[in-house]
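Question:
Now give any protein.
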Amino acid sequence: MDVVEALRQLGGVVVYEELAGVCTEWQIRRAVTDGRIVRLRRNRYALVDTDVHVAAAVAAGGVVSHLSAATTWNWKLKHEPARPWVTLPRSRRRPVANLEIRWADIPDADITRHVTRPARTVVDCAKALPFDEALAVADSALRSGVVDRRQLVAALRRSSRNRRSKASEVIEAADPRAANPFESVVRALARDVPGLRVVPQVQIQRVGRVDLCDEELGIVIEAESHEFHSSPAGLRKDVNRYTECARQGLVVVRFVWGQAMNRPEEVRDALNDVVIRRRRELGLAA
């Protein structure tokens, strides 16, 4: 059998013994020499177009994890990983350059094709990342449908006690209704504002669906993306939406991507001021 085709059928990354079962030693060596396949490390071979995160993990003797695993699962992230995230067995201590390394003995049940499974990936990210980044991962995982909250809770219980309470907060706050990481980050920032309780993707009569809303306070928060508001039709729709919000007595707060991602304190301060004023107007206790 052709070596490349054999590798594809075997999953793209294999140990030598698997490949030698269907190809000759000469075929394998020739395929490496010709650049048709690559030798990642001793006894490990892969297709040339193997995912860079998987290739890096296998070459290091570990598995793809955390943000790299989230990328492999095609989830949307706050930021793409600057370098591959790889988890190595605790017994392996040799330094590896240009990798984001974590150390853990991951059970085989939590790994598939050299990548941590979805539930394990969410829990790992929830423990290791800042809350807003972890929430974006968890929201996206739930939105994708490959994992549900029950599976996340079960995976958390199976995990080590280290940072378990932090991860529990992320999983509890995760919501598949969140439209994208931008919205997830804004929602994470809103959680830090006393007295503000927002829900994603709320349907408001004669307005339509808004990104975030505190229905008790009548506060609407929009995470504004330029691509959806740059046309004349988009502008007219925005004008009509926000005019209708004003007619209904709703306060609308709008943020652009750069504010949420790069100036979080600016977002928190603005929301805090709006909440204080709104609660005062409604005669609610501070």
In short: The two ends are 73 Å apart (CA to CA).
